[in-house]
Amino acid sequence: MTEHHSKARQIAEKAFDKTQASSTAGNRTRDELDAVTKARQEKTSRLREARLAMEAQNAADATVRKT
User: Fold this and answer.
1) Running DSSP on this structure, what letter comes out for residue 10?
2) CA separation (Å) from 58 to 17, 23, 24, 31, 61?
3) Does pTM top 0.70 for this prediction?
4) What is the pLDDT of residues 51-60, one digit of tens each?
5) Which domain holds residue 61?
6) Total count of domains within the chain
7) Position 57 in a domain
8) Residues 1-46: pLDDT tens digits?
């Protein structure tokens, strides 16, 4: 009877370990995806600011040339 319990427990522990490993891998993947998304958003913001600054400078230069 104790061997049966031990065998069932071993199976349950293996299943639990497999679930935990899958969960850990999923968390790691999610963290990597979040990091990539954050980096993309920061780069987009930086490029937007540079574009707006360049457009403002071009508009100022055009105004100076017209006068």
Assistant:
1) H
2) 61, 52, 51, 40, 5
3) no
4) 999 999 999 9
5) 35-66
6) 1
7) yes
8) 445 678 888 999 999 888 888 888 888 999 999 999 999 999 999 9
